[in-house]
Design goal:
Strands 2-1-3-4-9-8-7-5-6 form a nine-stranded mixed sheet, sandwiched between helices. Strands 15-16-17-24-21-19 form a six-stranded mixed sheet. The chain has a five-stranded parallel sheet with strand order 12-11-10-13-14, sandwiched between helices. The protein starts with 10 loop residues before the first strand and ends in a 12-residue tail after the last strand. By secondary structure, the protein is of the alpha/beta class. The longest helix is centred in the middle third of the chain and has 23 residues. The N terminus is likely disordered. It is built from 16 helices and 24 strands.
């Protein structure tokens, strides 16, 4: 619906950073309303035609000097406003309330209790609901005119509203799939806004128009990884521009899944695709990664090597910018937001398609990324709309750098000092469970900000049974103890034994070892009928084990739709037992762990 001037009325999401603004926008679109994302500093006078405003979450504290702030005059526009997480805190402070650090920093699932009728947004959600929290601060005193609508054990003011002015605030994230009734909560807000309708129908047509506008009379040199995103992007470009204007390049990095190159060649052949070149550059990748241990440096080198191979092939075939060619990539939105792709986003990790060389090309208008505003589930819908085979569209997501970001590299052991984190004696664990601290760190996301911290492994008498206590500890430990961002269950041992660290960078031998473990996991998933029930299943190789020279494998099954949040999947005992046994039969593997941590506080990938 449009206003009297014919201007589109959208629900505006003011992006305070973190990971959530685009996820909110997608949820709003799915509810049939047009949405757009703007910087929080956007002047209120530029928002007079907005149907409503949503203040997103973000990693900062409202009392930090550099924390983002919106124009307070948005509260004078006479339209509904919803504050989420940091948005709640900024709204509280701006309207005269008080924000203080919470007693407990919450990351993950939390139960809230509605107050009275739950107010306009939480009505009909029941007395109790499970929601997704990710915050350190909280509202201590509500602004004048607001009434409490929900509370939790750790957060007194979990939700509140000013019904008269249609101002709403929730400390949790209704936009993520793991928040119970989250869609209904957002729907009630959308219904209060007079927004222009939006529909997902005709996705390919609208994106096609944008591709033709950006490409003009040029051609596209498309990097294809074999994953869902690049497959859909390559197919879309072929469909919109024709194969004669697109050249696909699949770079064999030596870090692909077992048999993947042959599978990709066969799949595209069945689709009648003839414009795909396969280049074996594995030796070049391993040579460039020799002696590299730092995760961000490894990602940079992988990204730069991709571009070096692309440039070499393009020069050999005359496909250069000077000859009228652009670089195509299957980048999706989570890649850009985790690589600090928006103004206030925290840098979680640099994706290979967001290294400096690519950014420089983007600034010069030489990069085409037709999927950069989409999420994984939307990419799958687009793939189906394009007529791609089911097995291609629903393949498990696989990172562009392949197994390269699932092989942890470290030069020396790194164990935090202090009695509280001594292996086997960590004070939080009950008498039924023992623990050990990993001698390496991994990437996480806590409070929407990047963390690089240790994992804690738990040991149980039944290593294949994931009890309610274990799931509870996987949430509680990172919330209460900031030195950890992951909690795992050891499935190969019932008692912690000292870890033997083996310095290791990324080599062909380590890649081959993980390739075999990854293939075992895929086979066991398919045999158990779990492949399409589990959204993604990273298998990670760690440079330590229980014996000299031994290494460890981490099983990381997760449930998600959009990759911005994820919940650790529960595996049946017999499947976990079979996977562990087969992986332990591989020469060089002597320990297996099951990652129980959701995102946040962990990320899906370990690097």
């Amino acid at each position: 619906m449009k206003g009297k001037t014919g201007q589109r009325r959208s629900i505006v999401i003011l992006d305070f950073g973190g990971q959530y603004a685009h996820l909110i926008a997608r949820r709003v679109r799915s509810l049939g309303a047009y949405s757009e994302i703007l910087d929080p500093e956007t002047a209120a006078k530029k928002l007079v035609h907005a149907a409503g405003i949503i203040l997103s979450g973000g990693p900062q504290s409202v009392y930090d000097a550099a924390s983002p702030a919106a124009d307070p005059k948005i509260f004078d526009l006479g339209i509904p406003v919803l504050g989420i997480c940091y948005g709640l805190q900024w709204m509280t402070k701006t309207l005269g309330g008080e924000v203080k650090p919470g007693k407990v920093k919450e990351y993950g699932q939390t139960e809230i209790r509605t107050v009275k009728d739950g107010g306009m947004l939480l009505k009909d959600c029941g007395e109790h609901a499970t929601v997704w929290m990710s915050h350190g601060d909280e509202a201590a005193i509500l602004p004048s005119g607001f009434a409490l609508t929900a509370t939790s054990d750790s957060c007194t003011h979990a939700a509140f509203e000013d019904r008269k002015r249609k101002f709403f605030a929730v400390q949790f994230h209704p936009e993520v799939t793991h928040t119970e009734h989250g869609t209904e909560i957002l729907k009630r807000f959308v219904e209060l806004c007079d927004a222009t309708p939006w529909s997902v129908t005709g996705y390919a047509v609208r994106i096609g128009e944008e591709i033709r506008r950006q490409v003009k009379d040029r051609k596209v040199f498309m990097l294809v990884s074999g994953g869902v995103d690049s497959t859909v992007a390559f197919t879309l470009l072929n469909d919109v521009l024709g194969q004669e204007r697109v050249q696909g390049l699949l770079v064999d990095t030596g870090m692909m899944r077992k048999g993947e190159i042959a599978e990709i060649r066969s799949a595209f052949g069945r689709l009648g695709v003839t414009n795909l070149r396969i280049e074996d550059a594995s030796a070049e990748f391993f040579r460039n990664l020799k002696g590299i241990y730092e995760p961000e440096e490894k990602r940079r080198i992988i990204g730069d090597t991709f571009l070096a191979v692309q440039q070499r092939v393009s020069e050999e075939t005359g496909l250069t910018a000077k000859s009228g060619w652009m670089l195509g990539q299957g980048t999706i939105y989570p890649d850009t937001i985790e690589s600090k792709g928006t103004r206030h986003a925290d840098h979680i990790k640099t994706h290979h398609n967001r290294v400096k060389a690519v950014q420089d090309m983007i600034e010069k208008g030489l990069v085409l990324e037709p999927l950069k505003e989409l999420y994984k589930d939307e990419v799958r819908l687009l793939g189906e709309e394009l007529g791609l085979p089911h097995e291609l569209v629903w393949r498990h997501p696989f990172p562009g750098p392949g197994l390269g970001v699932r092989i942890l590299c470290a030069e020396k052991s790194d164990v935090p000092k202090g009695a509280e984190v001594e292996s086997g004696k960590w004070k939080v664990i009950s008498d039924r469970l023992k623990s050990a601290v990993f001698p390496v760190r991994s990437v996480g996301v806590q409070g929407d900000g990047r963390t690089y911290r240790h994992a804690l492994a738990l040991y149980s008498k039944n290593p294949f049974a994931v009890t309610e206590e274990l799931w509870r500890l996987a949430t509680e430990i990172p919330n209460a103890h900031r030195e950890f961002n992951r909690v795992l269950l050891c499935t190969s041992s019932t008692e912690p034994r000292p870890f033997t660290f083996s310095p290791g960078f990324l080599t062909r031998e380590r890649a081959d070892l993980l390739r075999e473990a990854d293939a075992i996991v895929t086979e066991e998933m398919r045999r158990a009928g779990l492949y399409e029930k589990i959204w993604q299943f990273p298998v990670v190789l760690l440079p330590f084990g229980e014996n000299a020279g031994g290494q460890s494998v981490v099983l990381r099954p997760v449930e998600s739709q959009e990759a911005m949040t994820a919940r650790a999947s529960s595996l049946p005992e017999h499947v976990l037992k079979d996977m562990t046994g087969r992986i332990l039969s591989l020469t060089g593997i002597d320990a297996v762990f099951y990652d129980l941590t959701s995102k946040p506080p962990a990320t899906i990938e370990w690097e």
